[in-house]
Amino acid sequence: xxxxxxxxxxxxxxxxxxxxxxxxSNSKAGKLGIDFIKTIDTENLDVKIAGEVKDLxxxxxxxxxxSRRLDKFTQYALIASEEAVNNAGLNIDELDKNKFGxxxxxxxxxxxxxxxEFTTLYNKGPKRISPxxxxxxxxxxxxxxxAIKYEAKATCTSAVTxxxxxxxxxxxxxxxxxxxxxxxxxxxxxxxxxxxxxxxxFANMRALNSNNDPNRASIPFDKERSGFVMGExxxxxxxxxxxxxxxxxxxxxxEIVGYGSTCDxxxxxxxxxxxxxxxxxxxxxxxxGNIDYSQVxxxxxxxxxxxxxxxxxxxxxxxxxxxxxxxxxxSSTKSMTGHLLGAAGAVESIVxxxxxxxxxxxxxxxxxESDEELDLDYVPNTGxxxxxxxxxxxxxxxxxxxxxxxxxxxx
Length: 411
Known about the structure:
By secondary structure, the chain is an alpha/beta fold. Helix content is 34%, strand content 18%.
């Protein structure tokens, strides 16, 4: 069995908007969501900036008792899921629950709860550890809580592939529907790891930008880039078989037609300098979509603003598209949001969906200094209108995980 798969609902919580409309509007406008960290004490931290979620009132979405039992990454996932389900117009009571599943992951899981409980352990002893500690921190908590809320009884899993997590979960859900195991899937990624230990850990491995200038911190493809900026949030998609969506007269936003997932098998943090496996993920997605390479009209790059990622991803894109790579608009919305780790690929999939829907490419902001080998069209600083038919979303994660999704404009 091979079925067409469409997206009928999307939901987002991000540093530049707590719903899809706000997020997309600010993406198009090139709004910077990176600022000095306000939710934790940064006095002893070298890195003092991040892309925090702002002005989100959790109590508007979750009751106090429920929210106290959930780490922030799960809270964000539930809030984005509610938007996506409402956006899709799903009537949960009418669904076949045994053909309705969830694939939502996180790169790190409940870091806020970990740190709070570690502090309790050392200050007050093991008897004071919360009985909810484990259910709050396990990475599958987000997927499980979504499944419980919506009574989704098909598969409920959480692919964990570092910064490729969101993209892998969407790709796996695509295949699950394509091959007939489910009719409807809630899929995506979530993350909330703006905590002292996460900031210190990434900073000490020299992955984060440390200049603490929000305007020159997350600058993908710029010659002066020196590390990524931590972000947080969630991106959730409602995906359906085309037949199921048409049968209920759903509003179809986009079609997903291809998926590639590969591993560099090279290094635990550095991408492969040659971009071999990253290029193969794109090739596999294009081949599954059964389209010509010339039909790809936009790439949302992983574009983290680290020296290695942006160079090696550029090499991978050139390896796939050869000379025509220079004709494809490529942008990194991480220039606005920072890097949402396990949520990044899901949020950036929403960018691709909206870009195809509206014919608009959001910019890579903060771009000033060109780099010799990074000579592609990175849509610097100002977005542009463009007729788009196919868009690729790339995600590359620590451990050498590469994932690419191919989206098609719904016509």
